[in-house]
Amino acid sequence: MLSQLTISNVALIKKQTIDFQAGFNCILGQSGAGKSIIIDALSFLLGAKADKTLLRSGESLMRVDGVFCDLSSEAKSILCEWEIECEDELVISRTLSLEGKSSVKVNGFPVTAKMLQALAAHLADFCGQHDSVGLLNASTHLSLLDRFVGQQAEAQRFLVDAAFEELAKVELQIASLGGDEQKRAREKDLLEFQIDEIEKAQLQVGEERELKERFDFISSAERIFEDVSDALLKLEEGSDNATSLLYEAKNGLSGISNFKDVEDCRSRLESCYYEVKDIAETLEAIKQNTEFDPLELERIDARLDLIKTLSKKYGKTVEDILDFQAQCAKRLEELENSQELLEKLQKQQSIKAAELQQQCEKLSAIRKQAAENFEKKICAELEDLEMKGTHFKVDFARGECSRNGFDVVKFMFSANVGQEIRDLHKTASGGELSRLLLAFKNVMLGREMVQTVVFDEIDAGISGHTAGKLAEKLVNISKYTQIICITHTPVVAAKAKAFLLVVKSVVDAATQSTVCSLNHQQAVLEVARLIDGGKEASDTAISHAQQLFEAK
After folding, report:
1. Which DSSP category does 23 fall into?
2. What is the dihedral angle through the alpha carbons of 208, 210, 212, 214, rounded to the nearest 10 degrees?
3. 2, β-bridge pairs
4. Average pLDDT of 274-281?
5. pLDDT digits (tens, 9 = 90+) for 372-403
């Protein structure tokens, strides 16, 4: 529930911290005092569209902070999913600048507006004559009914979901076999073409590197031949070649080789001589094998082009292409042997579809049985609110089997005896919708996803005995859920547990609204003012107000 709300620079409120209690919280104040600012601020905090017109005149930034406690398991689950720690309290902060920039933090962690809205759905519900349009959205009617049914529907939905998942797995396997016969035939043709194209290429791992090296060698054959020939001329073929000079030098030292240092030099020259001879022989072999062959160069170039073409289709390297070929061969084998498996899976599909159908039938039966009770309870609540002769019905249609069953549900309504029952959104007026909403809230006691419900003048246009009944409904709801209610109806206000008064005044030539808590005596006086409709309350009005409070 909401335990504290801090509002800064929102409309007429400069800076205000408001404490809320469990149960029925009533917000009082004259028309135009700024009561709706509190609702607007809370709505902004919980993900409503950022509206710069809410920013207090002359300020550059507005901020709203809310402290929530006693969180629902759904809210805690969302925070856990986001890896946001939350023990006793949840603090949400949202700002909006004059430039339109908004930021949101949950327990100090930045979150997106979409994330905030997902969390807010489990924190508070806003209800007024205009907020009741949620009832008009037929897409929510099935979930509302399931929440009324409770555990029985949840348990059966689990079985439906499990059956749906089993059927989906079988259908996925069937799809993996290529779908129908024509699709499988087309896939087989493609696989056979791909395998054949790669097989004809007779690729060898590592050949691309070897081909590139050979291509570069042949392309440079003329230069290699010239440079190797020049080196051979200097090493062995010229008149004063290195080999002859080394040979003469080592032999020239033979006569004095009995000296140790001389023998060492002669030995080293001999090693150089044989090393140069070996180099010359290797270069000679290179020279003999170096020949520019345009035909071989063309063959290598064509082979490299083929590998490049295949790599664009099947993989970056020869290894990748060969892996792709192996996968194609495996898939082709599966398709060739798929007919027997397909027939088996199709039998499983029929069985699983029948199981899903059966579970959906059970879920539908549970819903329809509960719907009769739901209809009776709603009509009873409406009759209590002086809407006699109304007719409310849950209409069922049949759709495709899904995770939620096959039921398509919408609420039907007739406000008067003899009036045709029609879709709720086509027949209910604003006042009727507000009472319908209150009826729903009472019927759904203990089944709400939220722990705070905000009623913004839901009693507008209601008076007398009906207002008293409405007040009783609000008290009943407040036993299960925190209520924050703006009202101008004395009998409704007198039923509250905690009271807040909004007052508008001028401070330093600027208008501002302030909020203060009221004790019992102050609350009685404010309700008396509501009765008298003026700034001052008569003794008669005060006495009447005291009687209303004593009648709690």
Report:
1. S
2. -150
3. 68
4. 84
5. 999 999 998 888 887 888 889 999 999 999 99
Q: Is residue 83 helix, strand or coil?
A: coil
Whole-number Cα distances in Å, 194 to 124, 176, 191, 197, 331: 60, 19, 5, 5, 12
| Percent share of the chain, pLDDT over 90 | 32
| Alpha-carbon distances of 355 from 160, 342, 403, 404, 488, rounded to whole Å | 9, 20, 13, 14, 56
Residue 20 pLDDT more than 90?
yes
For the chain, the structural domain boundaries read 1-123+450-518
State which amino acid sits at residue 139.
Answer: S
Q: Is the pLDDT of residue 209 over 60?
A: yes
**Which of 71, 70, 68, 79 lies closest to 109 in space, CA to CA?**
79
Q: Distance between the two ends of the chain, CA-based, in angstroms?
A: 23
d(CA 461, CA 487): 11
The per-residue pLDDT for 383 is 85
310 close to 200: Cβ distance less than 8 angstroms: no
Return the amino acid letter for 467: A
Q: Which CATH superfamily is domain 1-123+450-518 in?
A: P-loop containing nucleotide triphosphate hydrolases (3.40.50.300)
Burial 215-236 (b: 16+ CB within 10 A, else e): beebeebeebbeebeebbeebb
Q: Which of 48, 47, 49, 66 is nearest to 8 (CA)?
A: 66
Phi-psi bin for 31: left (phi > 0), alpha (psi -120 to 50), beta?
A: beta
Work out the angle between the directed axes of helices 141-149 and 151-176 (0-180°, nearest 10): 120
Output the DSSP codes for 221-269: HHHHHHHHHHHHIIIIISTT-HHHHHHHHHHHTGGGTTSHHHHHHHHHH
> One-letter amino acid identity for 240?
D
Query: Which range (32-36, 63-67, 395-399) has the least confidence?
Result: 32-36
Question: For strand 405-414 and strand 498-507, is the pairing parallel, antiparallel, or unpaired?
Answer: unpaired
Banded pLDDT at 293 (limits 50, 70, 90): low
- How confident is the prediction for the chain on average, in pLDDT? 85
Selection from 309, 312, 326 nearest residue 191 by Cα: 326
Over 60: is that where the pLDDT of 129 sits? Answer: no
58 vs 474: CA distance, rounded Å = 39
Q: What is the rounded (10 degree) CA torsion for 295, 297, 298, 303? A: 130
SS3 label, residue 421? coil
Q: What angle do CA 459, 462, 464 make, to 5 degrees?
A: 120
Average pLDDT over residues 424-453: 77
> pTM for the whole thing?
0.65
d(CA 37, CA 196): 75
The predicted model gives 26-31 an average pLDDT of 88
User: Is residue 419 scored above 80 in pLDDT?
Assistant: no
